Amino acid sequence: MLLDLTAEDKHALENIASKLTTLKKQRRNLIPILQMIQKELDYLPRESLKMVAEHLEIPESEVYGVATFYNQFRFHPPGKHRIKVCLGTACHVRAGDIILENFERKLEISEGETTPDREFSIERAACVGCCALAPVAIIGETVHAHMAPSKVEGLILRIAIEKEMAEREKQKNESGQE
Amino acid sequence: MPKLRVDGKEIETKQGTTLLQGCLDNDIYIPNLCFLESMEDPSASCRMCFVEIEGEKQPITSCTVNVKDDMVVKTDTPAVRQLQRTALRLLLSVHHVDCKHCPANKKCELQRIAKFLKVGLKPKGLERYLQETEIDRNHPFINHYPNRCVLCGKCVHICRRQHGQSVWTFAQRGFDTVISAYGEAGASSLTCGKCDACVKICPVGALTFKDVQEDG
Questions:
Q1: What's the rounded Cα separation, in Å, for the pair B203 and B154?
Q2: How far apart are CA B156 and CA B165, in angstroms?
Q3: Domain ranges of chain A
Q4: Residue of A20, A37, A109, B127 with fewest CB within 10 Å of its CB?
Q5: Segment B117-156, tens digit of pLDDT
Q6: Residues A65, B173: contact at Cβ < 8 Å?
């Protein structure tokens, strides 16, 4: 499942296109260019791989091959709320994979993907360093300790409610100003 | 022309050729999957073409050694066979063994090597690990079967040799490595015409033209 570009992404891509023209057409520049794009956009959209291939005059498949080899490159934009499920040794023992599965089922995306509204993305983490609290999930900057499958729905619901409340507040303010 | 001794037999080969090619030219079969004649820099990635050379401590891949005068080579020592059998078993453990429905049945290099090394096609003791994708249909003319592919890279190599650039590439890594013509849906950008080099060179039945019957 690939998501469409947002207006911001398109704007950033145009920036990258103009930046590319200043870079030398050498194959050894491939990884630095990909890193530059990821830094700007936080991910590598399909369109960007095509741009790079055209610029370096190599097949798109080659760019794709290199980009998929390295873990540092991602192909889905990060969601507004990045969910990281720890699968380190301690969390693995306490069934972190079941927590991951629950998030995947609830949000209907797989690990590494982003929901179509770009609200949530799911990633796996190797170890976040608080093994005593296993299994652990991190949403945004908050660590959620002793995760259980039953807590997954509540966490997502809370974020949805918070968002709704913020919107209502905003509407109230706007109507108050009129 | 260098003269060497292989398995007690005196053979003569071309100058500057690889040991593997030299042996094959003289009807001495050494199992191999990823080697192509006149390859500039053999990748030696299939780990099949091991031989023992006098003066070397360990078995060596014969595709990466050039022939030398008075070389003494053995192709079927226990150490060599053990390495080859293990490599083949590992390949078969990630291979969807369904020869009956495979277009490469009876002309398959894996079958040939398994017969030669006397290894069963369904080796015991190794977990079977198959890719989720049965058929990759992204290429406009060619279907790719990741679970038949042995990742020898011959298609990548031959495409690059014939066209300067390769449509095929290795994507992902580790167990997830696949041959891909650009990922999920990039078929339109391919420059592929009517050349059949990659389908022809495939030692197993991993690449087939779309109009050929598709089983499974």
A1: 8
A2: 9
A3: 7-69, 81-177
A4: B127
A5: 999 998 888 999 999 889 988 888 889 999 999 999 999 9
A6: no
The 8-class DSSP code of residue A114 comes to B
Domain A81-177 falls in which CATH fold? Answer: Glutaredoxin (3.40.30)
Among B167, B156, B215, residue whose Cα is nearest residue B194? B167
Structure tokens, B169? 């590439």
- pLDDT tens-digit series, residues B23-43: 999 999 999 999 998 888 899
Restricting to B residues 168-187, those with a Cβ less than 8 Å away from any Cβ of A are 168-173, 180-184, 186
CB contact under 8 A, B172 and A68: yes
Residue keyed to tokens 């095929």: B168
- Asked if B193 and B167 touch (Cβ cutoff 8 Å), the reply is no
DSSP conformational letter for A5 = P
- The answer to whether the CB atoms of A65 and B189 lie below 8 A apart is no
Give the number of C-alpha atoms closer than 13 A to the C-alpha of residue A33, restricted to the C-beta side. 29
A61, A68, A111: best to mutate for the B interface, most B CBs within 10 A:
A61
Instruction: Tell me the domains of chain B and their CATH numbers.
Output: 3-76 (3.10.20.740), 142-209 (3.30.70.20)
